[in-house]
Amino acid sequence: MTPTDDAGFVDLLTRCAARDPDRIYARYCGVPVSYGDIERSSSAFAAHLRARGLKPGDRVAVMMRNSVATIAIVFGLARAGVAWIPVNAQQRGEGLRYLLTHPQPKLILADADLAELVEDALAGTTTPPILKQGAELDAILGGMAGFDEPAPAPDDVFAIMYTSGTTGRPKGVVVSHRMLRLAAEGVGRVSAAKSGEVFFVWEPLYHIGGAQLLPLPMIRDVTLAMVDRFSASRFWSQVKAEGATHIHHLGGILQILLKQPEGPLDRSHGARISWGGGCPADIWPLFRDRFGIEIRECYG
Description:
Elements: H1 10-19, E1 24-28, E2 31-34, H2 35-51, E3 59-63, H3 68-80, E4 83-86, H4 93-101, E5 107-110, H5 115-121, E6 130-132, H6 135-141, E7 157-162, E8 172-176, H7 177-190, E9 198-201, H8 208-211, H9 216-220, E10 223-226, H10 235-242, E11 246-250, H11 253-258, E12 273-277, H12 283-291, E13 294-297
Parallel strand pairs: 1-10, 3-4, 3-5, 5-6, 9-10, 11-12, 12-13
Antiparallel strand pairs: 1-2, 7-8
Helix pairs in contact: 1-2, 2-3, 4-5
């Protein structure tokens, strides 16, 4: 795929699915998900949004952990031109109430075990419909409804991602389709990604560190190997089992991995590059020398 700087990413999905629907886009906890799978389920969800009356420019809040359904929902929102409001699954109480009311979503999606938290946080407000993960959502994503509207313009809003709020109320950062496409291309460059390689994904999609990887397989012909959460004790065994060539460092991840007991997987994990941001100068050589991994830094 030849990248262009003036495009979004929705067309990449539909083209890849048309060309090779059985090709694997990602694996989630070892379960393969093909381009055809994502195209069909995201199309069905985009059609459902239209049936609900949602139009381009509307907003939908999503409080869901990483899953195959989450991937389909995000692509479905993107195809319909509806802004994705990702909500941190760890949010509670007043902070959650703010994130669910400030952007004025027309619909809220939540994991089944998080739906009660959403309802409690919204008590006393005019609540938009809440669609819980379960039989109804599974039926929607498993539907066969087609969606053939043109892809949104590159500068249309893809997502509004809220900051952590360390200096006041969280601020909604507007992310365009073009921005996410360029973020993925930036990852491809800094990580020196090659066709056929595998990126280990522990990051939640509701954080830009995870979301920016969604277009990457379509740009660099790589596969995402996604897990449900970060686990320091299982990290290298998961990397090896997935045949991952790349890992991502963010925050104190490298320091946490260095604190794990030394073992045979330290040099037999198979990964060659760790890409990310914020590796301290003193940690860089320690991690590189112990795990035999090239470190590549980027930001922004």
